[in-house]
Amino acid sequence: xxxxxxxxxAPILSFEEAMLTxxxxxxxxxxxxxxxxxxxxxxxxxxxxxxEEAAFRIMxxxxxxxxxxDEFRDIIARSYAGFxxxxxxxxxxxxQGHFLLELFHGPTxxxxxxxxxxxxxxxxxxxxxxxxxxxxxGATSGDTGSAAIEAFRGLDAVDVFILYPHxxxxxxxxxxxxxxxxxxxxxxxxxxxxxDAQARVKDMFNDFAFRDGVGLAGVNSINWARxxxxxVYFFTSAVALGAPHRKVSFTVPTGNFGDVFAGYIxxxxxxxxxxxxxxxxxxxxxxxxxxTRDYRPDGVSPTISPSMDIQVSxxxxxxxxxxxxxxxxxxxxxxxxxxxxxxxxxxxxxESLRETFSSGRASEAETTATIARLSDTTGELLxxxxxxxxxxxEEARQTGTPMITLATAHPAKFPAAVKQATGIxxxxxxxxxxxxxxxxxxxxxxxxxxxxxTLIKERVPQ
Length: 462
Ligand SMILES: *Cc1c(COP(=O)(O)O)cnc(C)c1O
What we know:
Layout: E1 3-5, H1 15-21, E2 30-32, H2 40-44, H3 51-59, H4 69-80, E3 91-95, E4 98-102, H5 112-130, E5 134-139, H6 143-152, E6 158-165, H7 171-178, E7 185-190, H8 194-206, H9 208-214, E8 216-217, H10 224-240, E9 248-253, H11 258-269, E10 273-280, H12 285-292, E11 294-295, H13 316-323, H14 328-339, E12 343-344, H15 347-356, E13 357-361, H16 364-378, H17 384-396, E14 403-407, H18 415-422, E15 443-445, H19 449-459
Parallel strand pairs: 4-14, 5-6, 5-8, 6-7, 7-15, 9-10, 9-14, 10-13
Antiparallel strand pairs: 1-2, 3-4, 11-12
Helix pairs in contact: 3-4, 3-10, 4-5, 5-6, 5-10, 6-7, 10-11, 13-15, 16-17, 16-18
Bound molecules: pyridoxal-5'-phosphate (PLP).
């Protein structure tokens, strides 16, 4: 299986190389050159199998000869063993025809564990074989960083540096990043917003001398392997509700477009998805783009769903690549325009996007009201991101087609917002109840490329 860049001007890589690299050298994102298909019978055969078995069947065709079948089954088993629920991604009914896919039973209580745990195990297997070392650098609005640190802490061949916006992540998120004691874990609190952290990470990848010098590897949601891991639960949940014999729709609380793009891949593989609904908070650039064609960042405003406080939605580039009929030059042109302020997608590309994607947004007041209402009517405590999804899903639902809303984090990860809406303080699961008592370790750093690179060079064993 070959992997190609969305901008059409980077080396073609294998799955393993694309996973270890992250961002392509032309600034683009890697995608499989062809998308493996799951037939009606393949999908029907997923009914009743374990999450791990489904994960194996769905992901295997994308891997080429990276691992043997036994190695990959082993990697999957280790990735999900630490989850606090035997179904891994259980489905709960909220209302007639409306279901919640609980993706928060992993070690850091957010859906990012599904991908990050798998990536950690795949990196370890791959690096052990080659004897190489890598330096993982990632930007986070909170959940990617904690999931990455949890997945890589204590591994021999990896240093992990996570940049998060100082003062703009929840206390649980911060503590999950700053309390691990392993010396290969480095939490960096950067001045600014998530987009600043993400921009500095991109700068580091584009600084080839630095990139090669420290052996930079990226595990942000631009990493193809992460998207792939997320494809699995679109299949398992749709099959639980009757696919491939009936269509289902999904609503996905969205920031960087990685999770909802995984749904798009599932659809292209053959899963009968009717609509993929992009749910945003008041940072609604994706909703604006899908309704007005204009993609123009206009500043981030902090919300109670901070993991979605994003204006430059990296993975949207992958959707644009398909909307522009896999024309890398057209995508490169749009991204150049974005650097200069923004772009408008063509009418044809917009129509192509709208064949699959719908969108909606939830204001802060609507999000809080949804948390309160669902607690009253169903007893379900929603984290604010999931509440954005539920609110948008309720508006987008169509009778006759089940709607699955992705619950992206556990309510205890965002206790302040949940308490404010419901009066209930959501408790942390037993296994992490001492989080608030552990010592924190963090380095403050300016939003400055040279300062960040210098710090990393000092910390990485030469
Ligand atoms: C990361 C995150 C999102 C957004 O996911 P994307 O893949 O970036 O669109 C939504 N909710 C939570 C809780 C998250 O951690």
